[in-house]
Write a structure and sequence with these properties.
Elements lengths: L3 E4 L2 E4 L2 E2 H8 L3 E5 H12 L7 E6 L6 H10 L2 E4 L2 H9 L8 E2 L6 H9 L4 E4 L2 H14 L3 E8 L21 E2 H13 L3 E7 L10 H21 L3 E3 L17 H6 L9 H12 L5 E4 L3 H4 L3 E12 L4 E5 L8 H5 L5 E3 L8 E7 L8 E9 L6 E4 L20 E6 L2 E6 L4 H4 L11
Bound molecules: ligand LLP.
Length: 434
């Protein structure tokens, strides 16, 4: 569920007219709904009744300082994967004592920063990393809190490029090798074993793979509780969001109309399936959702530049490009595209919806049918809150887009569009060329 809907024929976010945002701040612009993020947080946090849950929002999905602060105010910790992300959490005015540090390639400097900042735990992904964390903690004269990411080798049934829990992926330590890895960690004097971690992939729309992974890891968790008195089990992230019917899925009616077996994964179904497996362990539970928390809470606004009618093919050319929203080009991802001003009297248009970047892959949708729209009108890409802005780049010397946060009937620019000067600030022409 989310707070983007037509009021009359005008697309609104909460009580804000999105066309007004587009006119004021220009396009391409990401717009986020604070109420949707709050709803998502509360729904997931409440879905595992009876279990002690700590939500660690994976800010790789959307690292906007405004959203980080919003989530911190709700009680969230964070799942970070770089020193930069750690500094973002601090810059947002939050602490990292409820946060975990994941990732396969942590540098010594990043480990030091995390320990000095009082991180809740580091999630180690290999034996050499355990040794490195031990080494850095020793230099600092302290013990590093750690958990090991265990790879349960399950099929997450998601896009091959975003699955992580198979043995052929680079992530984690295979389940077979986990006991030995923990034994190694226990011998290192500057480590404190705190938990066990898994993450099997992203955009999961069924609960089955989660159940399978938890069932595989639960016996290990029990053994680690006995041997090392671990206190938590981290389940990772991965709960998917609706892309296909993104706009309609904002309302309860859409969910009610779907037969239960066709309903995409909800936090309630996730909690209902996993609570019976997790509660008996008596461990604290860490969840690291990224996409679920913000995916349906954001849209990308874009302006139509041209409608180019071709022979047998139309092209709707937008001012947003693959640099602003890379998911369609990289993952063949589907994003629903809707007009900000609905007009049911207009004809339907079938077109390839493309950006201005000089690449054939700069195509958001092929042969998509939507209401005919023309130059100067606006459209919104739905479900663009996760892995949207954070993956944007400057290809074709296009500035990073702006970001706006909506709260009820008010909205505010929370990240200004990049300027040319900002894009080129570090560049120099050497004196010998002048
Ligand atoms: N924890 C770990 C260890 C992860 O690797 C990830 C995501 C998450 C949590 C959060 O997963 P989520 O709840 O967002 O599914 N750029 C891709 C998605 C990459 C996900 C990477 N890891 C996309 O646009 O679909």
């Amino acid at each position: 569920m989310h707070r983007f809907h037509y009021v009359g024929n005008t697309l609104q976010c909460e009580s804000v007219d999105l066309a007004a945002v587009a006119r004021l701040y220009g396009t391409p612009t990401y717009v986020y709904s604070a109420a949707t993020v709050e709803d998502n947080y509360r729904r997931l946090a409440g879905s595992l009744g009876g279990v002690d849950v700590q939500l660690c929002y994976a800010l790789k999905a959307n690292a906007s300082l405004a959203l980080l602060r919003l989530l911190a105010n709700l009680g969230a910790g964070f799942d970070l994967v770089s020193g930069g992300e750690l500094r973002r959490v601090l810059a947002a005015g939050a602490k990292v004592d409820r946060s975990v540090f994941a990732g396969v390639g942590k540098t010594e400097a990043e480990i030091r920063l995390a320990l000095e900042s009082g991180i809740f735990a580091l999630h180690a992904e290999s034996e050499p990393e355990l040794a490195r964390i031990n080494h850095v903690a020793g230099q600092l004269g302290r013990k590093a809190p750690v958990a090991i990411r265990v790879n349960p080798d399950v099929d997450a049934k998601t896009h091959a490029k975003i699955t992580t829990g198979r043995s052929e992926n680079k992530f984690g330590i295979p389940l077979k090798a986990a006991v030995a890895a923990y034994a190694m960690a226990a011998k290192l004097p500057h480590l404190e074993i705190k938990g066990v971690q898994m993450h099997i992939g992203s955009q999961l729309t069924e609960v089955g793979p989660f159940v399978e992974a938890v069932e595989k890891i639960a016996p290990l968790a029990r053994q680690l509780q006995r041997d090392y008195a671990i206190s938590y089990f981290s389940l990772g992230g991965g709960i998917g969001v609706v892309y296909q019917d993104a706009l309609a899925s904002g309302g309860q009616a859409w969910w009610n109309a779907l037969p239960a077996e066709r309903r995409p994964l909800t936090p309630e179904a996730y909690g209902a399936a996993l609570t019976p497996l997790l509660q008996p362990l008596g461990l604290k539970l860490l969840l690291e959702p990224g996409r679920f928390m913000v995916g349906n809470a954001g849209v990308l606004l874009s302006r139509v530049e041209y409608l180019k009618r071709g022979q047998g093919k139309n092209f709707l050319i937008l001012d947003a490009g693959m640099n602003d929203l890379v998911r369609p080009a990289v993952y063949d991802a589907y994003h629903e595209i809707v007009p900000l001003q609905r007009d049911t009297s207009r004809r339907a248009l079938k077109a390839d919806i493309v950006g201005p970047v000089c690449e054939s892959t700069d195509c958001f949708a092929r042969d998509r049918t939507l209401q005919e729209v023309g130059e100067g009108e606006y459209v919104a890409f739905m479900s663009a809150g996760a892995y949207g802005y954070v993956m944007a780049n400057r290809y074709n010397t296009r500035p990073l887009p702006a970001e706006v946060l909506v709260h009820g009937s008010s909205f505010e620019l929370v990240n200004a569009r990049e300027t040319f000067e900002q894009m080129t600030i570090g560049e120099r022409v050497p004196a010998w060329l002048k």
